[in-house]
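User: I'm curious whether this sequence folds into something compact or stays loose and floppy. Could you predict its structure so I can see for myself?
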Amino acid sequence: EMDYTPNWSPDGKQIVFRSNHNGPADIYVIDVDGSNLRDLTNDPADDWSPAWSPDGTKIAFQSDRDGNWEIYLINADGSEPVNLTRDPAEDQLPYWRPIVGN
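Assistant: Here's the prediction. I'll summarize afterward.
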């Protein structure tokens, strides 16, 4: 059992990370006090490299659930996964760029 790539939520109340608690790597969220562990992706494929959106409502991650690495986006509660890349090349390591004033 291994945990990787932790990322603080923008509000500082949660941490998102990749773990193989239940076999394949999934994306988990836990409260900073160590309570309320939640498996957001719960998929038989590997899900890696989670990154919070600047507003804390979404999490981007990479997954091989479609046969190669793609970038996915989910709501912060794990709902509504969307494949953003749909590309035959390997797409990895999503990163959010903070919004800077106009």
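Summary: The beta strands are 3-8, 14-19, 26-31, 38-39, 47-52, 58-63, 70-75, 82-83. Residues 29 and 38 are 5 Å apart (CA to CA).
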